[in-house]
Amino acid sequence: MEKRFLSVFLVLALSICLSLSVFAEEVPAGISDSKLSISASIGNVEQPLEESGVEPEQVPETVPIEPEQEVQPESSGVESETNVLPENSQANGESELFSPEVEIVEESTAGSEERHTPVTYYIDGLSGNDANSGTAESEAWQSLEKINATEFGPGDKILFRAGSIWAGQLWPKGSGAEGTPIVIDQYGDGNKPIINGNGTVTETLRLFNQQYWEINNLELTNMGTERASRRAVWIENHDFGTMNHIYLKNMYIHDVNGRVSDRYYEDGGIIFMVTGGAVESKFNDILIENNSFYMVDYDGIFIRNNWKNRGSVTDGIGPWIGNTNVVVRNNNLDNIGGDGIVVCESIAPLVERNVAKDCHIRATSTWSAGIWVINSEDALLQFNEGYLTRGDLDGQPFDCDGLCRNTTYQYNYSHDNEGGFMLICNWANRLKDFNTDGVIRYNISQNDRSKIFHYSGINTGFQIYNNTIYVGEGNNAVFSREDGVRGSSITYTNNIFYNEGNNFEYKNSKTACTFNNNLYYGNHPSSEPKDPNKLLADPKLVAPGTGGMGLDSVGGYKLLEGSPCIDAGVTISNNGGRDYFGNALPLSGIDIGAHEYSNDSSPVSLPVGTVWNAAQDYSCVSGQNQWTALMISGSNSNATTWSNEQKCWIGTADYAIISETLMHPMDGYDAARCFTAPVAGTYRLTGTAKKNNVGGGDGVVVSIRRGKQETLWSNELAYDDSVGVEHDLTVALDAGDKIYFIVGRNGNDWYDQTEWAPTVTLSSLNSRLEIEGETGSLRGAAVVQDFTAASGHKIAGFLGNGAGNDAVYTIELSEAGDYLLKFDVVTGEKRTLFYEVNGVETGSIEVPAGSWDAVQQTNPVTISLSSGENQIRLYNNSRYAPSVDRFILLKQ
Fold first, then answer.
1. What's the rounded Cα separation, in Å, for the pair 579 and 558?
2. Closest CA to 442 of 267, 300, 581, 277
3. 457, 433 contact by CB (below 8 A)
4. DSSP string for residues in 524-537
5. Backbone phi, then psi, for 515, in 5-degree steps?
6. 776 pLDDT more than 70
7. E strands along 102-241, which residues?
8. What is the pLDDT of residues 61-70, one digit of tens each?
9. Beta partners for 702?
10. Would the pLDDT of 350 be above 90?
11. C-beta separation of 679 from 605 below 8 A
12. For residues 481 and 453, what is the distance between their CA atoms, to the nearest angstrom?
């Protein structure tokens, strides 16, 4: 027994000595013996192992050998490698000699993140003290310097007191670990903690070769006296390899005056950048969510990996490497000098539910857009809203840019952008560069300007389908513009092109565009595509042109019952499975446009007494709250542009404004507020028009028109009439009818600023009757013809050109009175339609030349009808009348 005990003791002693020797050789420099705790005890060595309470696989291992690590400059962010056991550390036949209580514990050593005990630190800019422990609110630290000098570990929290303000740069050191990131947040009630770089630092918040950080609820700003390279947040991976898990959430970033005289992508709000060149590197697991940006230059959010070389891109540090698991979600960007959100060199990035407003508002460089990707693979951009992007090159909210494959834009809303809806862009090098297989589907574009689609360079295999494009009255946008060489291929299918604009030209001479099964409505330029399966019909949308701000404001683009778009689409595989509004797509019978008809569609319903006031409803969004600002000349209209500087809509002359309360005409054009009726009803129009500038000018003519032809009220105002004239009148309007409040020139247009903010009130909801042309009694040569664009796909044709070639309609009414009458007709030349009511020749309507393939609507007229049975006869005894699709009666 004694020999056995002595043998065991010698073996144990030798083992401990060897272990200590190995451990001493591997302790990193700077780690003192005080940081090591060694305990060894010898239990009852004759006690069987199974009686010790520890299963055999739980026997503690001897001291691990930690491999040497490369020291990373300015960082502790490199994770230690997995601990490696010595080869002789496995249990053998003598394992029963070792008690499970033999262990070596390493406390707080570098590279041992799993052994770090998380600590919560508090920072109070007012009552804190850097001499405190920092680990309780009553022991809070005070300065950024204290934070910046501290190396934090996995699971630590750094909490800034709400309402406090710090000046300078925040750059805490250290890295978290998977599952235990380091968290920055606020504590206490009040406003977000503010860190103000004051323009004295390049970035207000900085991380360098650090990973596993989550940063929340800070307010960051960095405004200097002069523009310079400047950012709010800078996250840099410099030869780090894969840098993981950086989350930035719920921050307010504003007033960062970076450079704007060129494309300074590295300046702005949140910038992620891979630099270096010695180690292939990338970001993994980026989340930028729920942040707000205001007045930031150059970019709001920019993510770049300088391992970017492919195609003709050779200015990077090495061959292309894609960042992974990049999510940019639910951020609000407003007043951005250059681009809003740019994601570069990434694999399957997700960019969703962001709003980009007023981008490219200060940058003097020509090209900037709202939300886009470049040099990336399989990007998905969805549920984003972009509006008031400035400039003509680029100036769009969305961009499928170069060296990308399989970019998808879906369920996005674009409106009021100076540069249009979508840029499809590439470098011009045919042999090296590519931008391929993009998909643009189920988006809505309302009143985008300049051009809707812009092609630049060679872009192949693009599918653009089931979008709804609305170009309103006076809008001079062309459908497409192209730059660069030939070679692109783009297919348009199942789209609605709703064009009330002046200049909707299709420019596709260098771009191989295929149009199939689209609907074209409104004005039809000569360049309109042939499209073998085109529809030229009113799509019967709920309320086109009435979208406001927000993805859910565009219910006016849903299809009404009886729309010719229903079940008229071509089935497209892998179509995303849903429409813009969330309706599931059927396997067959797809509709045309961004809405798949379902029971979510219904005409607008409003209570009697609903009020719209031009001043109270005033908006930077054209069409919001039913109001649009225009410059008009007779029947011609020109759209105005929102001026962020003057905070108003403005014509081509800087004095030609339409503001909340003021209107000023310009040379050749009158200023007009246009109200679009959302429902059929009687509306009361009230207000006072008076001169605002009484120091000059020669007066104005103020008028109210239903449509552009029918004047309901008119008055002259002398140049100094500061009292003005009141108006109070009622008018019957159908849904979609327009009322124009016009300030016109009375000679020159100098000093004619006029104050006028009219109010429109819904007085009653009116009954409406719609009669299809083919349902009448057609006599003589008049016949029913098939016509795809008609509301019922049929028309009453060959009317007129003889006394007996007419159509008679019998209508039963419950109420006598005056009714508004308007027609949907078809004619390719100027024609006259005569109408007779209850046997009495009543009047005629001159119909201008239109298109033989399209339906146009006449100006309304008023007729008197009896209760009970009425007859309306349509004819032209001497010449052909236009063919009749339908006519509408609206009780006044």
1. 11
2. 581
3. yes
4. --TT----TT-B-S
5. -110, 130
6. yes
7. 103-106, 120-123, 151-152, 157-161, 165-167, 173-174, 182-187, 194-196, 203-208, 213-216, 219-222, 231-238
8. 333 333 333 3
9. 715, 743
10. yes
11. yes
12. 7
| Euclidean distance between CA atoms 684 and 738, whole angstroms | 14
Q: What is the DSSP letter of 830?
A: -
Distance separating alpha carbons of residues 317 and 506, to the nearest angstrom: 41
| Residue whose structure tokens are 């609605």 | 496
Contact 735, 538 (CB under 8 A): no
Side-chain-side CA neighbours of residue 809 (13 Å): 24
Q: Are strands 120-123 and 157-161 parallel, antiparallel or unpaired?
A: parallel
Judged by phi (left if over 0) then psi (alpha if -120 to 50, else beta), residue 569 lies in beta
Query: Under a CB-based contact definition with an 8 Å cutoff, are residues 238 and 208 in contact?
Result: yes
Q: Which tokens belong to 754?
A: 């006029």
Higher pLDDT, 100 or 179: 179
For residue 775, the SS3 value is helix
d(CA 756, CA 689) in angstroms, rounded, equals 5
Helix, strand, or coil here: 373?
Answer: strand
Going along 780-879, which residue ranges are E strands?
783-786, 794-797, 807-813, 817-826, 831-837, 840-847, 856-857, 861-865, 868-875
Torsion, Cα of 24, 28, 31, 36 (10° steps): -50
Percent of the chain scoring above 70 in pLDDT? 87
Average pLDDT estimate for 122-132: 97
Report the C-alpha gap between 264 and 281 in whole angstroms: 22
With tokens 């783009």, the residue in question is 490
3-class SS string, 208-267: ECCCCEEEECCEEEECCCCCCCCEEEEEEEECCCEEEEEEEECCEEEEEECCCCCCCCCC
- Report whether 228 contacts 253 (CB < 8 A): no
For the chain, how long is the longest CA-to-CA vector?
A: 136
Peptide bond into 506 cis (omega under 30): no
- Beta strand 817-826 with 856-857 is antiparallel
Average of per-residue pLDDT values in the chain:
87
CA 424 vs. chain centroid, Å, equals 17
Tens of pLDDT, residue by residue over 450-483, are 999 999 989 999 999 999 999 999 999 999 999 8
pLDDT confidence of residue 854: 85
Contact partners, residue 213, CB within 8 Å, separation at least 6: 175, 176, 181, 182, 183, 184, 207, 245, 246, 247
Chain-centre distance for alpha carbon 727: 41
Burial class of residue 600, CB neighbours in 10 A (0-12, 13-18, 19+): middle
Cα angle: 222, vertex 227, 232; to 5 degrees: 25
Question: First-to-last CA distance in the chain?
Answer: 118
What are 572's two structure tokens? 């497209």
Residue 435 in this model has a pLDDT that exceeds 50: yes
Give CA–CA dist 481/470, Å, rounded.
17
Q: How many residues does the chain have?
A: 892
Position 430 scores a pLDDT of: 66
Count of CB atoms situated within 10 Å of the CB of 806: 24
Place of tokens 């060199």: 345
